[in-house]
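G., the chain you wanted modeled:
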Amino acid sequence: MSSRVTFRTVLFLLALVVPGTGAVEIALGPAALPGSPDVPPTVDSNYRFFAGVRAAAGIVLMLAVRRPEEHGTALRAVFGAVFLGGPARGISYLSAGAPHVLHTAFIGVELVLPPLMLLWYGRLARTARTAPRRRGCRAGGTRAP
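Predicted structure as tokens:
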């Protein structure tokens, strides 16, 4: 399996999980969190808003799956935003205390996965730019009339 196919597969899996999680969080609100905490209406509203942003980011990923090399700006924006979530969770950890272990683990995921995906994407994009164009070629490499 080529690196591009593997990248697209990983992107597809993320594009399923991210908006799916966002949709669940929109529907259930903070009750979707481990321990189903009671929160004030303002926190509930803010939580569901960012669940909508998460769902939208997943839709952007889904749109990029077919031809990721054509969606560099969108992929960089989504992965950059997810990366920024890591330090934001870290600040919360330091100021409010440790969250559920799953959310503590997300700090690592958000700090590691986006840069890896961006490095991988960059390599694929460079390969796509330097690869010879083969449009109009028949099987066997002969030019179509």
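Residues 101-130 form the longest helix (30 residues).

Shout if anything looks off.
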